[in-house]
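BACKBONE GEOMETRY TOKENS
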Amino acid sequence: VKNVYILGHSLSKVDMYYFKKIKMLVPKNAFWHITYYSQNDKRRAKAFVKSLKLLRYKLYPTIDEAISQFSLS
């Protein structure tokens, strides 16, 4: 696993257990791609990154932007 995509998720505290487990299962150098919808979501995403101590990540304002590197043709 080189990339982890979190698309359209609220990243609420109740879900942290699952994301901590995922972090334990993927390589430490995996790159996390995280989408947000609003400024509140962006703040929650930043808190999520800090809580999981992610070193390699990018925040995207839309799912389309996060997956733009994939070609459907």
In short: The radius of gyration is 12 Å. DSSP finds three helices and three strands in the chain. The longest strand covers residues 31-35. Strands lie at 3-6, 31-35, 57-60.
